[in-house]
Amino acid sequence: MSIGVIAVIATFEVIHWQRRHSELAFQAELILRRSVAVATEVRSSLRTVPRLKTEPCSPEDLKALRLLVERSAFIVEIGRTKDNRILCDSDGIVPNGGILGPADRITSRGTKVWLRVPLRGDWRLVVSAAEANDVVIFTRPTAADDLFRSLGDAVAAVVPPRLATAYASSKHSDQLTGAAYTPVVDRWFEQNIHQCRDGFDLCVVVSEPAQMGFSRLSLGEKLALLCGGALLGRIAQGFIGTWLTSRRTLYRRLKRAIDRNQITVHYQPLVRLDDRVVVGFETLARWPLPNGDHVSPDVFIPLAERTGLLPALTEFVIDRALCDMSGLLSERPDLYVSINIAVQSLLSEELLTVLKLYCDAYGVERSRIVLEITERETGDVKLIGDAVGRLRAAGFRIFLDDFGAGYSSLAYLATLPIDTIKLDKLFSNSVGTSLVGSLVLDEILHMMSTLNLSVVFEGIETEEQATALGAIAPGAMGQGWLFGRPVPIGDLPTSPSV
Ligand SMILES: Nc1nc2c(ncn2[C@@H]2O[C@@H]3COP(=O)(O)O[C@H]4[C@@H](O)[C@H](n5cnc6c(=O)[nH]c(N)nc65)O[C@@H]4COP(=O)(O)O[C@H]3[C@H]2O)c(=O)[nH]1
């Protein structure tokens, strides 16, 4: 009888273990993806900088380095090195040459890596560094912090493959220190998971403190549990394990989230800079995690694109945005709602049908819908131009998103029938500074006015930025945390201006 009870307990332990394991494997995959994104950016800059035609550390060279820094998502500084000394960084010459010191590790491609170093000797700015070809790249060590926070009481380490197995089998936190992103936790760990990415010297190890009831049982109870529960537990593990494994992959989780309406949308206001009147709202998709955090759209939109889930996701967002906003749009005829459309969706035949369908269903005029396309995603400009032309002819408005963050801006500007350009936040960040964004802003604004295009500045965070941008670009619009963070429909401000 007692063996039966213990067997049931064992079964529940196995279920719990499998569930938690599945959750941690998912989190590990997200951390790995972010780490690969950082490594890709570093690798690409380590190749690009040596090919620059500029004299190292000359004013033109520093300008080119600054431009690369501004265009990066994760890189905070780039420097030129010689014999382990930093000669200059994009901000200027480093006085007396900064010494890099011994590297924490060297990758299989020969790149030296430092996990934590002070930027320009200032320990208040701790960064990670990678050096090869007489170039050093500094990145934020906190690039994946949001994902690490969502691990709860588990810990993660980003380590090279040769260490991953050792870490995965380690049992105590002492052995987990010294790797990137590992908090020091004085507890025992179990359920180690490790995932690596081919082509990168990167593995993620996730471990959880031991806390299950099993560890608290007496020796006699454990023996009884092992004998009586092992068989049933094993059988259950077989069934449950197969079931959970089939649901474990990111693809299935995203599909499930879409199917079960677990994706949500937030809205962020766009304002006229002159008088701060709200002119529209951008729709931003969110994938909430059970702990209250959410997976960034920068992670799950590319995943949806690769796995064929994008049409369902795009339709879901269109449906939700029009349903949420139809009331506000009919009350305020001056407002629009914008929706991000990935190039893959833009090129699909269904998009126009879906848009028309939901506009009719919710009684929303097509001219009140803005479709934001991102020029960062290069593609066949002719095909994209045709698709944009069709949507515009059907009455929808088109904004070109993140202008300046990509590489094909001019080709797009010359050919696409667009209404408005959204300037990447690098321009808002650079206003009033000597950064390259600020230097080229006048020329870009002149070009926009020649082409009769309206301008939205993205990423405005301070009053100084808003005032300065409003002064140099009268009539421009702005978007950013200063005017409002992205929030669910119920939390939108009711006032027509901010
Ligand atoms: N640092 C800073 N950031 C600010 C500020 N104001 C807004 N942001 C963030 O900047 C991003 C603006 O959206 P985006 O450029 O279209 O960039 C979007 C968009 O390209 C894509 N995305 C979001 N939702 C969808 C969707 O439903 N479909 C598609 N295809 N893409 C989407 O994911 C990107 C990232 O979205 P989010 O993480 O929500 O990030 C949003 C927003 O939260 C600010 O003042 N400072």
UniProtKB/TrEMBL annotation:
Q: Please give the PANTHER family that the UniProt record associates with this protein.
A: CYCLIC DI-GMP PHOSPHODIESTERASE PDEB-RELATED (PTHR33121:SF81), CYCLIC DI-GMP PHOSPHODIESTERASE PDEF (PTHR33121)
Matches recorded under PROSITE patterns: EAL (PS50883)
* Keywords associated with the record: c-di-GMP, Cell membrane, Hydrolase, Membrane, Transmembrane, Transmembrane helix
The subcellular location is:
Cell membrane
Q: Which CDD domains match?
A: EAL
Which InterPro entries would you find in this protein's record?
CSS-motif_dom (IPR024744), Cyclic-di-GMP_PDE-like (IPR050706), EAL_dom (IPR001633), EAL_sf (IPR035919)
Q: Which organism is it from?
A: Kaistia soli DSM 19436
Q: Which reactions fall under this protein's catalytic activity?
A: 3',3'-c-di-GMP + H2O = 5'-phosphoguanylyl(3'->5')guanosine + H(+)
UniProt protein name: cyclic-guanylate-specific phosphodiesterase
SMART domains (alphabetical)? EAL
